[in-house]
Design goal:
The protein is an alpha/beta fold. The protein is built from 14 helices and 5 strands. The protein has 2 domains: about 90 residues, Winged helix-like DNA-binding domain superfamily/Winged helix DNA-binding domain (Arc Repressor Mutant, subunit A, Orthogonal Bundle); about 170 residues, Rossmann fold (3-Layer(aba) Sandwich). Helix 12 links the parallel strand 4 and strand 5.
């Protein structure tokens, strides 16, 4: 089992896909995942038979692993792995902050970290799902947004954005209130659940209630195979890599905020003059009193 990010030498799309579904993989698949993450250069040169033999697993297990992380088969996976391994050798700049780093190095690494996250996001995001989410939000009679902890902060930001456009938006970062509010939803309403892992119990339970109430559910998560995703009509996937230093999964927060921004921009441009008028009215009111 991978115990720390320092053990992971693979970067790029294949790494994101593996980490994104790691918790939902079978025991045999996790064994393959660990091997790939630690020794991607060697896997590139192995046939499916050789890889299976090295890990004392069947070829069928390797094939299942490739499908589980989103590839058509071993050949498809190995092509992606070869590309990521090659790119990693020429552009892999470490982003973890070391105790001996100067302030200039910290600034450089942190900016590189933010840039990498934003470059990864378009690869992870399903554009059709994004359009569906924007359309559902615009048509919603009522919009409820759920999040706990760090994801709760992103939920409050989303609520603030949508409220200014004139959408009837509500935000809940308490499990009990999420359940109660979800029970009041009906067909034509929308619930957005934000959870990096997709396993936050309070948010998952609220989504179950929201679906039973007839609402459209939109998940913002790094794990498209998670319990939250299973309860969702639309899944917007964030980047899944994380940096231990940040603890609260800063990479996930950046990805979540990126999606919130896209939803907000999509709503504003789709609504056109109506959204712009509401934004002007709220800006004028805030300027007068604050």
């Amino acid at each position: 089992m991978i115990k720390s990010r320092k053990e992971i030498t693979l970067q790029g799309e294949s790494n994101n896909k593996i980490i994104g579904v790691y918790t939902s993989l079978r025991k045999s698949e996790k064994k393959i995942a660990d091997y790939v993450l630690q020794s991607p250069q060697s896997v590139v040169h192995l046939s499916i038979t050789q890889l299976a033999k090295n890990l004392h697993l069947s070829e069928a297990s390797v094939s299942r692993f490739c499908c589980s992380i989103g590839y058509k088969g071993y050949s498809d996976f190995k092509m992606a792995l070869a590309r990521d391994t090659f790119l990693g050798t020429i552009s892999n700049i470490p982003t973890e902050i070391e105790k001996t780093d100067t302030i200039s190095t910290i600034v450089h690494k942190t900016s590189k970290f933010f840039i990498n996250v934003l470059q990864e996001m378009p690869k992870m995001l399903d554009h059709e799902h994004l359009l569906k989410a924007i359309s559902a939000i615009i048509r919603a009679n009522k919009l409820q947004i759920y999040g706990i902890g760090g994801s709760g902060a992103i939920a409050r930001t989303a609520h603030h954005f949508f409220l200014k456009t004139g959408i009837s938006s509500f935000v809940y970062d308490d499990g009990y209130m999420q359940i109660v509010s979800a029970a009041t939803l009906k067909e034509g309403d929308v619930a957005i659940g934000i959870s990096h892992s997709g396993t936050t119990l309070d948010v998952v339970n609220a989504f179950k209630v929201a679906k039973m109430s007839g609402a459209t559910t939109i998940a913002v998560t790094s794990n498209p195979e998670s319990p939250l995703a299973e309860q969702s009509d639309v899944v917007l996937q964030t980047t899944s890599q994380e940096i231990p230093l940040y603890g609260e999964f800063m990479r996930a927060r950046i990805g979540q905020l990126f999606i919130v921004d896209l939803l907000y921009i999509g709503v504003v441009f789709t609504q056109g003059d109506l959204a712009r008028k509401n934004l002007e009215n709220t800006a004028r009111a805030v300027k007068e009193y604050y």
